Structure formats: C-alpha cells, structure tokens
Predict the 3D structure of the following.
Amino acid sequence: MCGIFAYLGEKTNAGELILQGLTSLEYRGYDSWGVAIKKENSKLHVEKHPGKIGEATFPPFTASSGIGHTRWATHGGVTAANAHPHVSCNDEVVLVHNGIVENFEELKQNLQKAGHHFKSETDSEVIAHLLEEEMKNETDLKEVVLRVFRMLTGMSAIIVFFPGTNQFFAIKNGSPLVYSGTQSEQILASDAVALIPYTNNVFFLPDYELLEMNPHGARLYDETGTEKSLKTVTLEIDKSQVEKGAFAHFMIKEIHEQAAIVKQLTKKTDQIQNLATAIQKSNRFYFVGCGSAYYAALCGEYLFSKIAKIHANSSFGSEFSYHLDFIDNTSTVMAVSQSGETIDIISGLQKAREKGAHIMALVNVLGSTLYRTADSSFLLGAGPEKAVCSTKAFVAQITAIFLLAHTMAHTVDKGTKDLFNAAREITSILEREKSIQELAEKIVKSKNIFVLGRGISYPGALESALKIKEVCYIHAEGFAGGELKHGVIALIEKGTPVIIYNPEDETYEDSLSSAYEVKARGAYVIGISSKPNPVFDAYIEVKNCGEATIIPNVVIAQLLGYYLALAKNLDPDKPRNLAKSVTVK
Ligand code: M6R
C-alpha cells in the first residue's frame, strides 16, 4: 500500500531522488503522492498531488534532504490536502505514516482544544501535531518521538523529519521500514526494493525500536531510548530484478521468469525438509493466505492429501480468526504470502500463536513481518514481484508446497521430475504466446468468462479467474466443474467463453462432460489438456506433468489476463483500486 522514501546525503537534487524513489514503489498501489524537501538556506518546500506521479518533475531546488510518500486512501478522500507529508502548525515537524491511528478522533479533539489547526481529514495528521505539542515539554527529539508513538493505538510505521536540525526518526509496530547508509548518503524507505539502486546492505527496523538518521550517520535505540548496535543484512537482489529490461511490463517479465523459479526451488530440499519435520510432529495443519496466496493454500490442501496423505485445512486470512477453536499447541499454521505483510494474515496468526500453535511462513520478502516473526520461515526466492497481480510468487508458492508434500511422502525424486516437466511446459506455452494473445483479442468483448476445474484444477480455476478479472476488469469466475448443474450453468449464454481445465488425471472424463454440457448451452469452450477433443472450440495443449500440471495451466490464464488487459488498452501492472501489499484491514 503506501510507500515511503526519505533521503539525506551529499547530492543536491533530493526532490528528484525522492520522486525516483517513490516511482520505484509505485507498484505497491497508491492514489496520491507528496514530497517535502528542505531547500538549501531556505524554508521547507512541500508538493502534494492526487493521482499518479506520471511524468511529474520536481522543481530544480538545491536540497540534500527530504521525504516523500505515496498514499492509498483510508481515512479521508483522495485529495492533495490528505496526501502526506503532513506538517505541524509551526512547520517544524514533517510526518509520513503507513497504517492506521485507531484512536485519532480522541487525540484530534484534544489537539484542537489546545489550538492546533488541522489541514486534512486523515488520522495521520494528528501525529505531526502531537509531536509539536510534546516538543513544548521535551527538547530531546528521540524522547519526543518515543513518547508520541506510545500514545498511538493500532499498527503504524512513521518517519518524522525535523527540517530545522536535519534529523529523521523512524519507528514502527507493523509495516516495514528499511534503512541503508553509505559514506555519502542515507535512505529510509518502506520497501527494500527502493534501496537496491543505492546498496544491497540494508537494516530492517524491528518493531518499537527507534532509528535516528542525521548528517553524521544513523543510531538505533530500544524502546526505552537506550542505544544499541545496528546490524545490516545483504540482500541477494540485483538491479535487473527491479527493472523491466526488454519487457513492456513487469507482469509479462515476471510470467517469463517462472520456469527458472520452478527449477531453482527444487534445489531447496534441505530447507523444505525442515518444514516437513515440523509439520509431521503436529496433530493438525492449517494453511492461511489471501487472494492468490489463498488459492495456493487451497492447492496445498489437495497436494497434502493426495501426495503426502496428510489432512490440511486452508482458510482466508480474514476468516482464520473464526476457525481458531481447534488450534492448540499441537497445531501448525502455515502463512502463505508474497509480501509477508498482509494484515489479515498477521492478525489471525497472532491469535493462533497465543494458543500455542507453531507458526510457519512461506514468503517472498526477506525481512517482512511474517518472515521475521514466524517460528520457521521459508523464503520463496522468486525475486521482487513488482506487478500488482501475483504471478511468479503464486507459482513459487505452489512449487514449494508441492515439494513439501513430496518430501513428506519420501518421493522427492518423482516430485522434482514432475516440476522439471512443468517448467518445460511453461517454456513451451511461452513459445506459443502469440496464439494466447489472439485468443484474448477474440474474447475481449465478453461480459463474463468462466473457468471450470475439478480436483486440484478447482483452485487453479479460482486463481485463473482472479488473474483475468483483476487486470482486465472482465467479470470472471472459477467454479468446481461438478457444481455446474447446481446453478452455475444458468450463467452460460451463447458465446460465453468457458475455460475447461482437462488434465489427464482422475478428473479427465468428468471435466470433459462439463465441456459438453456448457457447449450444449452455446458456450465457446477453451480446452486446456494434453489431448485435443472435438468439443473444444479452442485448444491449448499442456502435456501431462502429474499434479504439477496445475502450474503451466495457470500460466495460460496469466497470459490471457495480460493480453486481455493489453487488448483493452489497460496497464496490467497497475490495476485500478488494488494495492500490492494489503497492510490495512
Ligand atoms: O502479499 P500476499 O501474498 O499476502 O498478498 C495476498 C493478496 O493480497 C494477493 O495475492 C492479491 O490477491 C493479488 N492481487 C493477486 O494477484
């Protein structure tokens, strides 16, 4: 969701650098933006705008420090006034905030009584005024920030910029804040991706610790204000991974990376064995995820049952709190998440932890909240996923869960062989990309698209429909093939595109029957199978790779979604209203 980028260094074009930093965070999703810089020998300059950064340039002021923010509106509409940074009445405090101040109304009333004038409708602005108020009683700025942060309820990450002294303070109890410092410049950001153009050595700020960044360097304090040492980690990400390169969009670049990711994951069997050992010690096992990660979790239910003969339940992150009755200290809960920051998962997991469950995290972002707080974590290693819609992280999640199931079944060699076949099929589909583009152009005027699958192809159908609807805004639904006659079939009209997953497994004949049934009602049937059939109006071949066939099958829907978006002249990387990492409930 919101993005933060703060700069302090030798370069004198801070405004431009902050704008570049914010642009690298655009993928998180936002609806307005703002930058505040301290002009050399002069006052603060603040720019705030609704909408996207686009081609915006920053006035060529000489400035070596400042802070910027991209906002995804929660409290207060999308206006320039509600965009961050927020500035105190006396212009001495500049604030950016990610998260929600749950007690803002009460705090605001008290501040208004004390004479503070509010310029926005946001919850965040109270923090700037609280800081100004507290500075009347305390001169030590670190004390001021620590005290004010204690007054806030809810989960927040803030960076405070005091332009008068050129000091920045960062503190959080939720969304990440990351610091990097070289001899010539220091940066604070909400996402390590923004730091990669500068350095790979970064520091992830732990909850409730305070980081001070000033022209002499950085200092870290615990929550009592006692100084402690700051140890950086080295990120294994290179610049090419955060750039589009020769591709038109991040989405298509990330789709193309998937065959390599699948093969790469087969080398992580030792780490997967550790997860398997912990799961096998527990009595109950739960997967928890949201959106695409939930569909990967649902695939996990089928894979655990079929391959490992282990019972698993899967739940949406937002529903998991209502399933806690059976969780105890013999349970294992695995969070499946690209970002590792999804609040619906984090809050459900906190309750499971209180009941003694072992918490596992399958995440793609090093240093993320789930990665740091889980009892055992597995890093997917898919590299930064910058398109808002998940493609390669979803494929990495299924691949890891597939390998985990085979590890528990002691059939890793068979699993690895299936995955190499799946990777080969992804490559083969990408060689036929043009035909999927033509199919997209043929069905782009459709009002509805349906996807049917049985067995593990059912969660595959759900994920496929999500991929289509979120990037091209055509209504798409995934259904279990067997549900057709229980109501779904009423939706089929002449020409409605229906994608049928028809892999060569125990669902083969029944899925074919579904194809005939929708065809009889006029559907345009798109068959995805290893065998052609006269019932298919369009046929996309995917050779059988056992249970791993789901992986190339979903890649077809990713490509279809991508080309449908292009056919509608939409930007597939930035679907409307969506945020990459959903850090508010
Ligand atoms: O970062 P996470 O994997 O926890 O995110 C979960 C969902 O928000 C995410 O998968 C979302 O559904 C995407 N838009 C799917 O493309």
Q: What stands out?
A: The chain has a mean pLDDT of 94. The CA atoms of residues 81 and 119 lie 6 Å apart. The longest strand covers residues 63-71. The chain has three domains: 3-240, 250-430, 432-576.
